[in-house]
Amino acid sequence: MSQTESPRKPLEVRCPSCGEMHLYSTDNPYRPFCSKGCKAIDLGAWASEEYRFEAKPNRDELLEDLTDDPGH
Ligand SMILES: [Zn+2]
Known about the structure:
Blueprint: E1 12-14, E2 21-23, H1 36-47, H2 50-55, H3 59-67
Antiparallel strand pairs: 1-2
Bound molecules: zinc ion (ZN).
Zinc ion binds at residues 15, 17-18, 20, 33-35, 38.
């Protein structure tokens, strides 16, 4: 018998963290990430406040800028 292609192609997914294509496997406890490291990075980013700080302008700084003008 010769090797034939499997009718079911393994599902490949892109790791949301590093962007690498990898096989989506139920054996992978870190899916849809490719590895433990990538999952940790992603969860860490969302858990931290850094995302929000970077997304929004510093409001206090803006207010200070406006109130810093003593009188026009
Ligand atoms: Zn990855």
